[in-house]
Design goal:
alpha+beta, Beta-Lactamase, Alpha-Beta Plaits, 4 domains, six-stranded antiparallel β-sheet, 26 helices, 27 strands
Length: 744
């Protein structure tokens, strides 16, 4: 037995519904029942069709239901057929015209239903009754219900629509309105940048679509009343020859004889209008339609305004507001899409070019963050102008801007990267101020199967390599760089243990009093006894410590060991000046003064023979803080030196206020002595400046007798370099300190 539908209690189950039995029951019913399948073919027609419409049911099955519908109402039937088959429930309409067997048209009411319970009859079942069989009150009620039903369906059209399907939803809504008697064309006109433009249109079979895309906003002044709230109605024939209505002749050519335009308002302001066109006159002015069309225009206006807000939010989410280029997430979506096209073979080659503005922090600190934002926006604007249609531009954050490059093959990416970098050749003009700016770039070429974050990481690594090599250049991520990064990662992992396990040691490079060649002091330089790679110089792991945050802990170890060794020498009667390098992060650490005092006291060393060496960059990173900290350190009796002088950006006004004792001339200037007159002039200026300020001068990197001769002629008293000695263990320095004249 087949389980039937429960009707309450223990109702007996029944047999499946038999269409032939139902047909017999409907023989004497005045209503005509018709079943239609999903293809629009008649699957069932009740016997009453013989009496009411003159059609033989057996001969009608298999025919298209449209054969029985009035041509001008086909679109209305299709609309409600769609409602039913989409599972939107039953629908009551006012009247339709159905073809009689004698060729005349019979006005009838129509109800459309769908659902599993009518499956034996087809996908949709329609019930038709002649108008004479329906009381006037019923017809009025049906008309009102149909209007309300249409508004509900119109509103529901926009529920759950995403941004991509919104336009389709508007078209469906206009098609629903086109189902009203007399509505042959629906056009949405919206205000856009001072113009009123067509955004959507539906057109029925009796009229032609409008080719007009714009209406002058000034022409609409006063047409919708002083507050833009009144309807605008006109009939073409009445004004064809003498009217100033824009596009009237076009409407006539399209078959439109009357138009009702209903304004749309948003926040009380005119936002556009919906124009309903008809091939008839008078139909659109009927009171039964005016309220419906006004309500429909209001629903459309609200939906369009909400859609605009959603678009703006989506734009803000996917656009960097400062630079007006892709945000990080929008750009990564584009990279993901590009990698998929690369994997499918749609794109021949793909690459990322990551740009980081050089010394951008200096721009922010010296000119202010507002000016920094203007510079960044100007740089993005130049890059956007230089971007090809196949490329994407995005901002990752801070001053990092990235381009997605496409090409038939990867050979041209390097040249393209250089072309992009050329946008920084000219300075940026900010009002009356010029700002010269460079960038460092990292290029990473994608391979099939790569992920967006992996590609971005490779470009980032190449960019930092470009900065390490001097900035204002592009480096490409390749196997050599990958090996370098792998080694760097291994060293960083091992460095943490090295600091704690005693795998570090200090070597000392003697500093000489040049006129007498006697040892004046030593510079403490850290070395790492790596278990696999042997003795590593500071240049190989100190930058890693800087990047990883280990530099403060490393600096403490160096200073404590230097103090211990100095105390040991002093206890034995040896009194060299001990120079120790201090990083910017150490200097800016809140406990730096207390830490240094504690280590000096713990070692027992005389602080008067300790000299802290700081780079210009470290001192000027926070000049005001440096003034305070260095003043406290000088008050402890420590000497202070600016290392690599001439390579940074010291302010002379700050230099005068800092408690400095020594200027160290950078090796890059010493290297050119004897060959370059410019370097001689620079060194002479540094020595003169130091003498004016009462500072001692030390030259580093002395490697030839020619350099030594020029330095002495310029009046430089102290120096160090391989001409005299390399850095060496403390025991060898002890021997030199004990020698009578080790460098004669």
């Amino acid at each position: 037995m087949t389980e039937g539908r429960s009707t309450g209690g223990d109702a007996p189950t029944g047999a499946p519904v038999d269409a032939h039995s139902v047909a017999a029951l409907l023989t004497h019913v005045d209503a005509v029942v018709v079943g239609v399948d999903l293809h629009g073919r008649v699957t069932f027609l009740s016997p009453s069709a013989r009496t009411v419409l003159g059609h033989e049911p057996a001969l009608s099955v298999g025919r298209s239901v449209l054969d029985f519908m009035h041509p001008e109402e086909v679109h209305r039937f299709e609309e409600f057929f769609g409602y039913a088959t989409d599972g939107l429930g039953s629908s009551a309409q006012p009247t339709v015209q159905v073809r009689h067997a004698d060729g005349t048209w019979v006005p009838m009411t129509l109800d459309v239903m769908a659902g599993p319970e009518i499956a034996p009859f087809g996908a949709v079942v329609g019930t038709l009754k002649t108008i004479g069989a329906a009381a006037p009150a019923e017809l009025e009620l049906r008309a009102r219900l149909a209007r309300e039903d249409r508004l509900v369906r119109l509103a529901s059209t926009f529920l759950g629509l995403d941004l991509a399907s919104f336009d389709q939803g508007v078209q469906e809504a206009l098609a629903q309105l086109g189902g009203l008697p007399g509505v042959d064309r629906c056009t949405v006109m919206r205000v856009r940048d001072g113009r009123v433009v067509k955004t959507h249109q539906w057109c029925g079979r009796r009229a032609e679509p409008s080719a007009r895309h714009e209406v002058p906003l000034e022409w609409l002044e006063g047409r919708f009343g002083p507050a833009w709230r009144d309807d605008l109605y006109f009939e073409t024939a009445d004004h064809l020859d003498d009217s100033d209505i824009v596009g009237l002749r076009e409407m006539d050519d399209d078959g439109i004889r009357s138009t009702l335009a209903v304004p749309m308002l948003h926040d009380g302001r005119f936002a556009g209008f919906v124009a309903f066109g008809s091939v008839e006159t008078g139909r659109l002015r009927g009171s039964e339609f005016l309220s419906l069309l006004r309500s429909a225009a209001g629903l459309l206006g609200e939906a369009l305004a909400r859609h605009d807000a959603e678009l703006e939010l989506a734009h803000r989410a996917r656009t960097d507001l400062l630079t007006q280029i892709d945000s990080r997430w929008a750009f990564l979506d584009a990279v993901t899409d590009g990698l998929e096209r690369l994997a499918s073979g749609e794109v021949g080659a793909l690459a990322l070019l990551l740009l980081d503005l050089d010394r951008f922090k200096l721009v922010n600190d010296s000119l202010g963050h507002l000016t920094g934002d203007l510079v960044l926006a100007a740089a993005a604007h130049r890059l956007r102008d230089a971007t090809l249609p196949t490329e994407r531009l995005g901002r990752l954050g801070g001053d990092e801007i990235v381009l997605l490059l496409e090409a038939a093959n990867p050979e041209g990416f390097r040249e393209r990267a250089n072309q992009v970098m050329a946008v920084f050749d000219e300075p940026f003009l900010l009002g009356e101020r010029e700002c010269a700016l460079t960038a460092s770039g990292g290029l990473a070429v994608a391979y099939p199967g790569a992920g967006p974050e992996e590609l971005l990481s490779q470009a980032d690594a190449a960019m930092f390599r470009a900065k390490d090599l001097g900035r204002d250049r592009v480096e490409t991520y390749d196997r050599a760089l990958a090996d370098l990064l792998s080694r760097r990662f291994r060293l960083e992992s091992a460095l943490h243990q090295a600091v704690r396990n005693g795998d570090l040691e200090l070597h000392y490079q003697p500093e000489l009093h040049l006129p007498t060649r006697s040892i004046h002091g030593v510079e403490a330089l850290v070395r790492w006894n790596h278990p696999d790679e042997g003795l590593l110089s500071a240049a190989e792991f100190v930058p890693i410590a800087e990047d990883s945050g280990l530099i403060v802990e490393l600096g403490r170890w160096v200073f404590a060991e230097a103090c211990r060794q100095l105390a040991e020498w002093q206890a034995a009667g040896r009194w060299p000046l001990m120079r120790v390098n201090v990083s910017a992060k150490q200097l800016n650490h809140p406990d730096v003064v207390d830490d240094l005092v504690a280590m000096i006291e713990a070692s027992g060393a005389d602080p008067g023979f300790l000299c802290l060496e700081l780079t210009e960059t470290a001192v000027m990173a926070d000049a005001d803080l440096s003034l305070e900290v260095l003043g406290k350190l000088a008050g402890l009796g420590l000497q202070l030196a600016i290392d690599d002088f001439g390579t940074g950006y010291s302010s002379l006004s700050y230099l005068k206020r800092l408690s400095m004792h020594v200027l160290k001339i950078d090796r890059s200037f010493v290297d050119g002595l004897g060959r370059s007159s410019d370097d001689v002039a620079i060194v002479a200026a540094i020595i003169s400046l130091a003498q004016t300020l009462g500072l001692t001068v030390t030259a580093e990197g002395i490697e030839s007798k020619a350099q030594l001769r020029v330095l002495m002629e310029l009046g430089c008293e102290y120096g160090q370099g391989w001409l005299f000695a390399k850095a060496m263990p403390a025991s060898q320095v002890t021997d030199l300190l004990d020698a009578a004249a080790p460098f004669d």
